[in-house]
Amino acid sequence: MSDLDSLHTRFARTLEAARGPAGGPDPAPYADALLTRWREPQRRYHTVEHLTAVLDRVDELERYAHDPDVVRLAAWFHDAVYLPDRSENEERSARLAERALPEAGVPDAKTAEVARLVRLTVTHDPADDDPDGQVLCDADLAILASPPSAYAAYTTAVREEYHFVPNDAFREGRAAILRQLLDLPRLFRTPHGTAQWEATARYNLRSELELLDDSPSGPGSAS
Fold first, then answer.
1. Which of 47, 5, 21 is nearest to 160 (CA)?
2. Spatial contact of 110 and 127, defined as CB atoms under 8 Å apart
């Protein structure tokens, strides 16, 4: 089974679980539409590989979630709209979910929760009483705790997405994002994320920030 076939199967399973016994239309066209978005040419990091990684991490963290299938749907939609030169990607992605999921048979309450979770990825700062938000945000940020070679590939892909931004402006914007993340009391909110990923992620972020600060043109736009 190819990776895309596997993703189709995963989406169908998630959609069917989220919409319950009432059922709905064939999941395949919805999976096709989403995967077409995730394979757009402007993407270098926010790709099908990123989607797969986030879904894998949600599976890893699902025991902490209140409704894992709603979190999985939020993962499918969280970067479904992605244009690097636009600042409202999360909002547009949430609105896409609000349009598509009712048509696909998902109840209104679950659709609203998916949209809320997508919007939460703007800040990655879920409340203490928001287990689904914690799982999605931890899954999305898990890349920050990668081994050095994978983290380097991640930062390279982010820079390629923002190829149109001059180097000085990129360094300044990227450094601001890193500082914003480091200023969070905790990057990860689930027990697993805190125990397994927090220290490595903070080390990676500080190391990248030091490289940006030490660059010839000074510190360092991307997410």
1. 47
2. no
Q: Identify which of 160, 193, 188 has the alpha carbon closest to the alpha carbon of residue 174.
A: 160
Supply the angle between the helices 48-61 and 131-141 in degrees, to the nearest 10.
130
Inter-residue contact 199 to 187 (CB < 8 Å): no
As a whole number of angstroms, the distance between CA 133 and CA 78 comes to 12
- Nearest Cα to Cα of residue 69 among 15, 120, 142, 129: 15
How do residues 65-100 score in pLDDT, each as one tens digit? 999 999 999 999 999 999 999 989 999 999 999 999
Under DSSP, the state recorded for 142 is G
In the chain, the largest separation of any two C-alpha atoms, in whole Å, equals 60
Smallest CA-to-CA distance from 113 within 62, 49, 57, 65 is with: 65
What are the strands, taking DSSP E only, across the chain?
none
Query: How many whole angstroms separate alpha carbon 102 and alpha carbon 113?
Result: 12
Spatial distance between the Cα atoms of 8 and 64, rounded to a whole number of angstroms: 25
> What pTM value is reported for the model?
0.94
Is the pLDDT assigned to residue 143 strictly greater than 60? Answer: yes
